[in-house]
Design a protein that fits this description.
Elements (H helix, E strand, L loop, with lengths): L1 E5 L5 H8 L6 E6 L3 H11 L3 E3 L1 H6 L5 E4 L6 H10 L3 E4 L7 H14 L3 E3 L7 H11 L6 E9 L19 H18 L2 E9 L4 E3 L5 E3 L5 E8 L4 E7 L10 E6 L3 E5 L8 E5 L2 E5 L13 H12 L7 H20 L3 E2 L15
Organism: Asanoa ferruginea
InterPro entries: Gfo/Idh/MocA-like_OxRdtase_N, Gfo/Idh/MocA_oxidrdct_glycsds, GFO_IDH_MocA-like_dom, NAD(P)-bd_dom_sf
Pfam family, one: GFO_IDH_MocA_C3
Length: 353
Amino acid sequence: MRIGVIGCGKISSIYFKNLTQLTQTDVVRCADLDVERAKEAAARFGVPAAGTVDELLADPSVDLVVNLTIPAAHVEVGLAAVRAGKHVYGEKPLAITTASAGQLLTEATDAGVRVGSAPDTFLGAGLQTARALLDEGAIGTPLSGAVFMLSPGHEHWHPAPDFYYQPGGGPLFDMGPYYLTGLVSLLGPVAAVSAVATSGYATRRTPQGREIRVEVPTHVNAVLEFEGGATVTAVFSFDVPASTIPHGIELYGSDGTLVVDDPNNFGGPVLVGGRDVEWREESLRTPWSADSRGLGVAEMVEAIEAGRDHRASGALALHVLDIMESIHTAAERGARLPVASTCPRPAPFTGLA
């Protein structure tokens, strides 16, 4: 399927690298507000055409738009693609609000086109191996779990970090989608949440000394109650100078514990242990362990062509967004809140055709 990429910033390089190598995707055009940046990306990755966003949307050779813009522009660009009759796959989060995400999905359905969304790391070898182990009963019935994403923030390394501290950013909306999508793929949808959220600093400072005003919570403690009965404690923070707690997911079952590496990655290790069982590292069940961003696009293309549901779907991304929005609201109100949306647990993924 012919692909057009909108947004040629930092994250785009890995998408261009992978999408120009996968057989399911043919990148025919790219665009950016900075047209020169789009032209540079096109020259670097062998993309035939580059220019403005309007030119890309008007190009009849583009079947699917990969939207790599900043979070605040995800819905605007997504709606423009849908209204141009094109499928769209966007970077996470799907939107800043569930209301705007719902509009995008509704218009896509009415237009007869598909919406997909990152993250697609849950399709990787690590989380898919963990999924297979859960389904095989390796730890019995999942009862509880814990996830941690503790960091000092992105202003120390990112060239343009302002959006991380604006609505649609913060540790929950930036990194939460990896963890929450991974958890939903393992345990199914979330039914209710409770939370506490704070901001440790009113401003952030880049290495060059520029100050950034913080507009969102930067330390979030949440409890997730899954429809299947398990509960998971989750901590997402940009306020931690250093920590010995690794990024990852731990699930505690009636018969053992399952540990998955950082869900921002595609690979392992995946560990299983128990009361009287030594920790063992499981062999990964699929080959997708390298940085395979864009895998969700290729799987979506195969699904469209086969007439089946795709896994990194708009419904999944909407549910994850709803969880995150509910966490922030629960923290503001000091209350336990139901999550209004739900979604099917994505089908297991073993590879592309």
